[in-house]
Amino acid sequence: MLVAAVGMFHTPLVPVIPGIEDFAGTAFHSARWNHGHDITGRRVAVVGTGASAIQVVPAIAGQAARTTVFQRTPAWILPRKDEPYSEEQRRQFAARPELARRHRDELYNLFEQTTSFLRGDPAAAQLTEAATAYLERKVPDPALRARLRPDYPIGCKRTLVSSAFYPAIQRGDVELVTAPIERVTGVGIRTTDGVEWPCDTIVWCTGFRATDYLCGIEVTGRQGQNLHRTWAGVPRAYHGMAVPGFPNFFMMYGPNTNQGGNSIILILEAQAGFIARTLRAVEDAGADTCEVTVRAMERYTAELLTALGGTVWTDGCDSYFRTAAGDIVTQLPHTSAWYCARMAEFPSADFHLTTHPGGAACTIS
């Protein structure tokens, strides 16, 4: 059995921008931070305003002499509300585990109800109102506020949580640039309005190749099938885990298993349990290979595409959820409870359990 558990956010994406190789300063991706490079007193350009940038900008603003933030698309931001637990709370949780369990269940239910990714869901209007009020409360300058307000439905792109980004972006030593980048020069970044923004350091907060599953890994299945060629740029898998033609191969955090609301840990636990049940089913059957059927894969794909059609992710905004061709291959259009229920049993009718005459069922390189 082969389980690929390499995740989805592991291959940094650096955009293709003219002149990027001409930059004479230091440049690195936020996920490959250059800890040997001291940004104190330097002019730093942060490219991007997504989940990485809203952590990076508040952390370096004030340490750098000047921070210039290049924004392509603003994000919906909600305030972070996770104050540290007090000593008294921690004592109560330790003494009365049922209190910790109840608190955990409250948090689970709160996030499980986050279904604003569904088109027409009332939660979307409530979250939009909350995010708008937070923006208006924290950014008094109407011109800056207008540049920070998204023009797409909440949930269409990843909704961010931060109480530090809006204060940081309003510092006197921080500037928000919304003109598109034209090119990188030897001494900075030039935007399409002809302005050149000098900098010593560029931090690429430009995300990951999230739709390129198993990037850098070649999986060979039955009769020499190559998984990437089988996908042809549109990764799909039965519940994000198995693909016909690739016996004894499973993925964790595979296609269309990323959460729209609750914790991905719930999904990973459900997948680990499903793999364990599959192994037991193979052993009980006296088999040594397990392969999802083409019929089960086609049925699941049809159900998936129908469900995705009812989400705001199809409303045209550009995000890491979609391939360059527009296929949504990262997101699960259901709640974690839905997925966990589907993974709770091994559906024997959806799999072929057979005895393999010799050699490995699947190889990886």
Primary descriptors:
alpha/beta; three-stranded antiparallel β-sheet; single chain; globular; 16 strands; 365 residues; 30% helix; 10 helices
Cα end-to-end separation: 15 Å
Number of strands: 16
From the alpha carbons, calculate the radius of gyration and give it in angstroms: 23 Å
Structural class by helix and strand composition:
alpha/beta
Major β-sheet, in short?
5 strands, parallel
Low-pLDDT regions: none
Sequence of strands across the biggest β-sheet? 2-11-3-4-7
**Assembly state (oligomeric):** single chain
- Helical content (DSSP H or I, runs of 4+): 25-40%
Taking all residues together, what is the mean pLDDT?
A: 94
Structural description of this entry:
The protein contains ten helices and 16 strands. The protein is of the alpha/beta class. The protein has a five-stranded parallel sheet with strand order 2-11-3-4-7, covered by helices on one side. Strands 8-9-10 form a three-stranded antiparallel sheet, with no helix packed on it. Helix 1 links the parallel strand 3 and strand 4. The longest helix has 21 residues.
